[in-house]
Every structure is written in structure tokens, then in C-alpha cells.
Amino acid sequence: MTDTERFFCADAARSRNDPLAGTAPYGTGWILIEYRQGWPVNGFEGLDLDPQTKALVLRAAQQARARILLIRRPGRRHSGGHNRWAVLGHDANGALLQQWGTWHHDDDLAQIVPALKSRGETGLRPVILVCAHGLHDTCCAVRGLPTGQALSKVWSEMVWECSHVGGDRFAPNIVVVPDGVYYGGLDVRTAITVIEEHMADRIRADHLRGYTTLLPPQQAAIIAVLKQFGPAGRNDYTIGKSTRHDKGWHIQVAGRPPHPPTVDVEVLPRVMPPRQLTCRGPANSSAVQYEVTSIHMPTRSTTE
Length: 304
Known about the structure:
The protein is of the alpha+beta class and 304 residues long. It has six helices and 13 strands. The protein has helices spanning 9-16, 51-64, 112-115, 138-154, 188-199, 216-229; strands spanning 29-34, 66-72, 83-90, 96-103, 127-131, 159-162, 174-177, 181-183, 208-211, 237-244, 249-255, 262-271, 288-296. The protein has a nine-stranded mixed beta sheet with strand order 4-3-1-2-6-5-7-8-9. The longest helix is centred in the middle third of the chain and has 17 residues, at 138-154.
């Protein structure tokens, strides 16, 4: 196959207008490990590290339901200083937590295990992750690398390239953690605008894949509300109640003032036709689309 015939999953997804809503993987915890050399296709699991330490971290991550991502600074590789690691997440009250450390020897990574059980610090600036895992998917490098470099010129201390985050066809993908917000289908210009808005706590429906603290149909419901009523802060809308029925979900979205107090959303799952969804995908597969079929504010009783 020649270069002109080469398949790029992000180009194909854009030409098909694949929906973004409801495609953020569920999760509330992240482990970030700085690794400046080349990343194996399977990320942390493929690194040539001390087997005992690696198994210890993997087991602790699984127990905490935390996702491990490799990170590095955009641009030229820097060789000085120690590599960093971080544990990020939420507490029971929704507070955003971060704990950072450094590692030089493999067994230094064992510090991650007790960090997963400690509270961490609050009030730190979020971390902006740009997927640039080219060995996993070509589009993540082609679109992710320039996006990460552009963002790092504005937010140098907050931006990292990261390994595979899911949804290669939406490259470049940006994940803001520990907020747990996925963005996709961007370019350099829109990425800067989206992050500017995010930092001002104005999240728009455009380019939003979802919040990782919600299940896919709930993500689709909140994105539909943002699309209809305008941008809002990360925590301005919450899920009041989700009811599964024969065809899909009835989801109640609760808003803080000045946003609508209650919005009822109907969401139906639809299986998309089989397609090649990644650059390196050996076969076609089907993704699920979460289609919003109804959105309205409930009518208040006149007797209230």
C-alpha cells in the first residue's frame, strides 16, 4: 500500500462524522509514570522493568481501579533530572487529589502503592494529557504530537504527552486529570481554545467525549444538555437519576443555578455498522453510539 492509500482512522472517523458523546472510558483514578524513551505498544506493561516491581504496581492499580499512563514532556527528549510519577483521583466528596514523586531506579516505583491509599494534595492545577502513542496508533502521533507541542507553549508545566487513552479515531485526544474530562476530534487551534475554556471552568459540548466519572449514556445526556443550554462548569451538572428501560435510558440531569434545575433526557444505544476503527486494527468492529432522542425540562405543577 502506498502512502496515498494509507488508512488513517481519525480521517475516516471525521469523514463519517462519528459521534464523540459517550466515548470516555469510565474511571476515577490515574497513575502517571514519566518514561522518556520509546513506549511499547502496550504501554507500562511492556516496559523492561524489574518484574516484581512492575507486578506490584499493576496489582495495586487493578485493586484501586486506576489507569496507568506513561507520560513525557512534549518536544525534544530531556535527559537531566529524575523521572516523575503521580497518583491522581477523587475522594468520596469529589475533591481532586494529586500526589507526586520521583523515580530513578525501578524499585522506586513501589512508592506508588502506598500513594494510592493516601489522600494526596488538593488545590493543585490539573494535568493536561495529550495522547501521542504512535506505536499504538499512527493518528495519535500524527495529530497528537503537534497538539501537545502547541499546548505546552501556553501551559508548559501542565502539559504532558501520554500513552494510549482509548478512542484512537478521535485523535488528537486530550484528557484533563484528575478532573476526568475527555476531549477529542481537535486540531491545534481548537485544542488551545478548548483548554482555555476548561481552565475557566466553561466546558462546551463541542469536542467533549465525556466525563470519566459517568457511564457512557450519562455522558451523552450531559453533553446533550450542554449543547442545548450552553457551556457550564465541570460540576454544574450532575446525574440525578438513571432508569434503564427496554430500549435505553431515562436520565435526569440536575443543574446548579443559573442552569436548568432539572432536565430529562432519553438516550438510546445504537450499534454502528462494522468499520475499521483504528489505524492498526486487523478487522472491522462495531462501536456503540449513544443517541439522545428527547431532551426537555419537566413541567412544574400549577398547584406548587
